[in-house]
């Protein structure tokens, strides 16, 4: 009897115990390495990833295929030598603000393949990371300040999520972002001044690859691009808009991109573009790779001929070969 009362009391205590609820890792196998020492012998971790678990010297930590539903505040903390952290394919649903504390050298943070639905402010801000992988999650909400104050962020992977909106106010004090992988989301529109906080390659000098600007918005549901969407960026290597639902391109929409190399608009709903749009395209900077890829669109053949004539006159590479062949075949059919 006495024993049972004790048990009940202990159970109630455990339920009420605040700290007991804050255990992010429960008996989780962790792989950790140090560049000089090689693989570190770490037993399964209960609690958080910190020096008390023998991780003080870890340069790289990987947790994969585990069950970590919530990363509580301080889930990863006080690891001054850590530069690569991978918590992947581990059913993470939620990350609390402050989950990554005092990891000043962290360069790469991989959280791909989880079930994260929301990115709050206070999780990532002020990290020194250069590469952030949030792909293959269930993200449908990103707070406006979620990506602020990431001064070194170069590569952001957000592909394969459920994001419906692009917020032009993202990336305040995150000026070095060069690669945005946003493929396979649910974006319907690119709003005005979409990239007002992203400055491009000019000031990036520390030799950490890659140095290409590559914005990948392929395989979304984009129907409209605001004419001022790209107004604030001058330089872009590749803009990938493949497999969207774009039917109309406003004059001037790309005209501020002084140094764009390639714009891929393959596999959209374009039947025609206006003369004003064509004349507003940046051209003639002599960049070999410069090309506008417009193939696999339901072109009006008359319009396509106009585009090709324009292209020849201006010396711009307008890739429409496949569509042209289709038009030629249709013409031959008509003659028959
Ligand atoms: C194609 O464009 C031409 C010229 O702009 C127009 O006269 C014609 O009706 C269009 N054809 C179709 C099928 O929309």
From TrEMBL:
<dbReference type="InterPro" id="IPR003591">
    <property type="entry name" value="Leu-rich_rpt_typical-subtyp"/>
</dbReference>
<keyword id="KW-0732">Signal</keyword>
<protein>
    <submittedName>
        <fullName>Slit homolog 3 protein-like</fullName>
    </submittedName>
</protein>
<feature type="signal peptide">
    <location>
        <begin position="1"/>
        <end position="20"/>
    </location>
</feature>
<dbReference type="InterPro" id="IPR032675">
    <property type="entry name" value="LRR_dom_sf"/>
</dbReference>
<keyword id="KW-0677">Repeat</keyword>
<dbReference type="Pfam" id="PF13855">
    <property type="entry name" value="LRR_8"/>
</dbReference>
<keyword id="KW-0433">Leucine-rich repeat</keyword>
<dbReference type="InterPro" id="IPR001611">
    <property type="entry name" value="Leu-rich_rpt"/>
</dbReference>
């Amino acid at each position: 009897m006495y024993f049972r009362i004790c048990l009940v009391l202990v159970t109630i205590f455990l339920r009420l115990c605040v700290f007991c609820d804050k255990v992010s890792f429960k008996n989780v196998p962790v792989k950790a390495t140090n560049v000089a020492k090689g693989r570190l012998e770490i037993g399964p971790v209960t609690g958080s990833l910190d020096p008390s678990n023998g991780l003080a010297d870890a340069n790289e930590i990987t947790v994969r295929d585990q069950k970590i539903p919530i990363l509580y505040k301080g889930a990863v903390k006080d690891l001054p030598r850590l530069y690569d952290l991978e918590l992947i394919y581990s059913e993470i649903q939620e990350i609390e603000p402050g989950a990554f504390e005092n990891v000043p050298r962290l360069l790469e943070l991989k959280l791909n393949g989880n079930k994260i639905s929301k990115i709050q402010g206070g999780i990532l801000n002020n990290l020194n990371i250069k590469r952030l992988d949030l792909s293959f999650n269930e993200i449908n909400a990103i707070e406006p300040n979620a990506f602020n104050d990431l001064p070194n962020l170069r590569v952001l992977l957000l592909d394969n999520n459920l994001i419906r909106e692009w917020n032009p106010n993202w990336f305040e004090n995150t000026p070095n972002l060069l690669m945005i992988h946003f493929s396979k989301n649910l974006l319907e529109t690119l709003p005005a001044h979409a990239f007002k906080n992203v400055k491009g390659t000019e000031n990036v000098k520390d030799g950490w690859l890659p140095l290409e600007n590559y914005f990948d918005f392929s395989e979304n549901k984009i129907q409209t691009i605001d004419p001022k969407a790209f107004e604030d960026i001058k330089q872009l290597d590749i803009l990938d808009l493949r497999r969207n639902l774009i039917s109309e391109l406003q004059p001037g929409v790309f005209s501020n991109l002084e140094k764009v190399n390639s714009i891929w608009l393959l596999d959209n709903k374009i039947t025609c573009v206006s003369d004003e749009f064509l004349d507003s395209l940046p051209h003639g900077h002599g960049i070999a790779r410069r090309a506008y890829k417009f193939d696999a669109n339901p072109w009006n053949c008359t319009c396509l001929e106009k585009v090709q004539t324009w292209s020849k006159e201006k010396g711009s590479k307008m890739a429409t070969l496949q569509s042209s062949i289709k038009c030629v075949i249709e013409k031959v059919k008509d003659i028959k």
